[in-house]
């Protein structure tokens, strides 16, 4: 059995690493399962791509498509065109896509249109209901043509049933991003900036913002960052900025002695910081899952989330995107009233094994 594993962007690498490892385990046990890791090239910056291959021990991809595009359509087209050429050289028995990035959707469509290659989607069924998010469109389109749905939560299962997916095609397996988190936790690495900025456990804040709705208008970013600075009340703010966010920072004038805007960190360094942070302020999806598992308080600066468990069960508060919501949340934190949170079902570090076991029995 040949499986194509598709990965193109930072969160994809984190989600695919344990699946590769689980396949390698199966191979050692003599199972007839082969894989081709297809890197679409969507993220090409070393800090968002090869650094993750190194730290997470991901093997060299079978191919890097080096697909580029300035716009969503250009990128989608480039990925589809190049992946189709790979499929023409050898047809896999299954294409497996993860998450919700452009590569996920583009490769799903390409495989499905190539004579109906069976398609599996890991992290299927989550929905924000917000069609202004490119990721929501990627989720909807991918799930519309997926054959095997691997889900992280019961909410995702219900969403899929609601759109008519037969129950026997839905596999509630948990979260591969958390597999990586739990596996790598003993290797988390203190970054050099710890000493440089004089950090101490629970005495600093970690911030990441990269959603177009928060960073594409530089004034919006400025007002959010100013509110975080005010709420931080002098605590150091470590802000590893996505390239998209860095561009917006170049256009605004916002500075404070305790604000440290830095390049994206490696996975091991970033999560070292998150694990000991007083609070994380973010608009990321994956980070809210990680803070939930590490039980670190988290403010989610979004109007909605496709991961409701991070605030219904976990440690997040869904604050919206108005800067005025930030200070009251800090006040709650300082009063010691932040909820403790629980870990969602099956986020236990064994998800990838479950996925590969299921696949093995399906083919
Ligand atoms: N991350 C990282 N370094 C950073 C910022 C984030 O390693 O400087 C990791 C983080 O731990 C999480 C993933 O990147 O696993 C989240 O990616 P991102 O926020 O880009 O994507 P989203 O989850 O919002 O799709």
Provide a compact summary of the structure.
With 363 residues, the chain is an alpha/beta fold. Helices cover 44% and strands 14% of the residues. The protein is globular.
Helices and strands in order:
Elements: E1 2-7, H1 10-28, E2 34-39, H2 50-56, E3 63-64, H3 72-89, E4 94-98, H4 102-113, E5 119-122, H5 134-145, E6 148-151, H6 154-162, E7 170-172, H7 176-184, H8 193-196, E8 205-208, H9 212-215, H10 218-232, E9 237-240, H11 243-251, E10 259-262, H12 267-275, E11 279-282, H13 286-294, E12 298-300, H14 309-312, E13 316-318, H15 326-334, H16 351-362
Parallel strand pairs: 1-2, 1-4, 2-3, 4-5, 5-6, 6-7, 8-9, 8-11, 9-10, 11-12, 12-13
This protein binds uridine-5'-diphosphate.
Report the order of strands and helices.
EHEHEHEHEHEHEHHEHHEHEHEHEHEHH
CATH evolutionary superfamily of the largest domain: Glycogen Phosphorylase B
Low-confidence sequence ranges:
none
Q: From the alpha-carbon coordinates, what is the Rg to the nearest angstrom? A: 20 Å
Strands across the major sheet, in which order?
Answer: 3-2-1-4-5-6-7
Q: How would the global form be characterised?
A: globular
The oligomeric state is single chain
Heterogens: uridine-5'-diphosphate
Domain UDP-N-acetylglucosamine 2-epimerase: 28-360
InterPro entries: UDP_GlcNAc_Epimerase_2_dom (IPR003331), WecB-like (IPR029767)
Family: Belongs to the UDP-N-acetylglucosamine 2-epimerase family.
Organism: Taibaiella soli
